[in-house]
Design a protein that fits this description.
Blueprint (H helix, E strand, L loop, with lengths): L31 H7 L1 H10 L8 E3 L2 E2 L2 H14 L3 E7 L2 H14 L2 E4 L2 H14 L6 H7 L2 E5 L9 H5 L10 E5 L11 E5 L5 H12 L8 H12 L3 E6 L7 H15 L5 E6 L5 H12 L5 E4 L2 E4 L6 H6 L5 E6 L14 E5 L1 H9 L6 E5 L9 E4 L6 E4 L11 H15 L19
Parallel strand pairs: 3-4, 3-12, 5-6, 5-8, 6-7, 8-9, 12-13, 13-14
Antiparallel strand pairs: 1-2, 1-14, 4-10, 10-11, 15-16
Helix pairs in contact: 1-2, 3-14, 4-11, 4-14, 5-10, 8-9, 8-10
């Protein structure tokens, strides 16, 4: 293995392990097995990592290859793509930095696998701004938590991180609107507002009630509006992946409710999402370029299209001619089926799944380390500005990180010389009414 891709070895796991398998980044575990015993999401991810089968760590079109050979082929194919799409983007901060450097070189569009869910909150933030809380603020100050449109089951330890039901917790009540809880809370009142089945209408009515207007026939929402005003610190929780199309309008309604409350009391929103490096991708890209994902980056400039640069839409429209798929945290998250060549970076266990799905044709696969499992790294946590270090639980697998692989590809492109190797990228065609 080239020295640039070498990984340090360690013989013992860290004493304080941070779980990388959802954006909560739960800390303080003595080992991954302890996290798996407490959290089904961690258990599922660890089980998937252990089910890798006997596939080689690098493959070209389904045939075993050494790492250097696979990277040579990948770089050659990437150089020929007129409009590459870098998708999935399940990596840590170092991986995103390397991704950006490579994307600028090849004029790539960047979209996270959860881009649709992430855009709901980002578009609302771009349009109107927002008030948000951190985990520490919710834990130490929130006396009323309102969970809107989700049961939060995708984040099994969320309420534990909120401190709900623990001695000294200020939280006295949890209300679910348009969903039912899947967990029980000792010593805390839990209520359900079934709603009308139309979350748009329910939130518009709640916003009107919070603003002091009269709305008939919505007694449960009226009681909730009164409770929000009486609360000293209310937090409205929502989940981007559970929102329907045009979910940004729902987030804007929540932001409007919070803005009204903050004239007289204290309130904030708390968005669930950003796992598989989603928050790290958006924060790091914004730091480097000024724009989040769903942006085309090149030496000529930036083009941000939150609707147009959706992975599924780009592939359906034939607007890209090659996909680089990165999913270093989730071996189950395979690239979407598409009739374009692919470069896939994923955990070793992903190779067997690609083979079983018959998805290795015209595909270069390179196994990479999972930050927090096979290698160290850094991720942004679910609450935005907080960055946590990830400790390697085991470095027995001699795997390169995403950043090392992407830098190696960039080095090969630079060595080949851009002139005469790549065909200049052409602008993506925008369908009528596509914006």
């Amino acid at each position: 293995m080239p020295a640039s891709l070498a990984i340090d070895r360690a013989s013992s796991p860290p004493a304080d392990w941070t779980c990388p398998f959802c954006a909560l980044l739960c800390e303080g575990w003595t080992a991954p097995a302890q996290a798996a015993a407490a959290c089904p999401r961690a258990r599922q991810a660890l089980d998937a990592d252990l089910s890798g089968g006997d596939c080689p760590p690098a493959m070209v079109d389904g045939q075993a290859a050494d790492l250097d050979g696979a990277l040579d082929v990948a770089a050659s194919r990437l150089a020929r793509w007129r409009q590459p799409l870098f998708a999935g983007l399940g990596t840590d901060i170092a991986g995103v930095r390397a991704l950006y450097r490579l994307a600028v070189r090849v004029d790539a569009i960047c979209d996270h696998a959860d881009g649709r869910a992430l855009m709901h909150g980002l578009r609302a933030l771009q349009d109107r701004g927002q008030f948000t809380a951190t985990l520490a603020e919710v834990r130490s100050r929130a006396d009323l938590i309102v969970v809107v449109g989700t049961d939060a089951s995708a984040y099994p330890l969320l309420f534990r991180r909120f401190g709900v039901g623990e001695p000294g917790s200020p939280c006295r009540r949890v209300v679910f609107v348009g969903a039912r809880p899947t967990t029980e809370f000792a010593g805390v009142a839990v209520d359900v507002v079934p709603g009308s089945g139309d979350l748009f209408a329910d939130l518009q009515q709640l916003a009107a009630l919070v603003a002091g207007r009269t709305v008939s026939g919505v007694a449960a929402l009226a009681e909730l509006a009164a409770a929000l005003h009486a609360s000293s610190y209310a937090v409205l929780v929502w989940e981007g992946a559970r929102l329907p199309d045009e979910g940004a309008l729902l987030v804007e309604a929540l932001n409007r409710i919070v803005g009204t409350l903050n004239r007289h009391t204290r309130a904030a929103t708390f968005g669930l999402g950003g796992s598989d490096g989603g928050h790290s991708v958006n924060q790091t890209l914004a730091w480097l370029s000024g724009l989040p994902s769903r942006t085309r980056v090149s030496v000529q400039g930036l083009q941000h299209e939150p609707r147009l640069f959706d992975t599924a839409r780009l592939l359906a429209d034939g607007a890209v001619d090659g996909v680089m798929w990165i999913s270093s945290f989730d071996a189950v998250r395979l690239p979407p089926a598409a009739a374009v060549p692919r470069i896939v970076l994923g955990p070793p266990a992903m190779a067997a799944r690609l083979r079983d799905a018959g998805a290795l044709a015209d595909t270069v696969f390179v196994a990479v380390a999972t930050p927090g499992l096979h290698a160290e790294g850094h991720l942004f946590r679910i609450d935005g500005p907080v960055v946590l270090p990830l400790q390697a639980a085991s470095r027995g697998a001699d795997l390169p990180g995403v950043a090392a692989v992407l830098d190696a590809l960039a080095g090969r492109l630079a060595a080949a010389g851009d002139a005469g190797v790549r065909v200049p990228a052409s602008p993506v065609a925008v369908a009528e009414g596509g914006r």
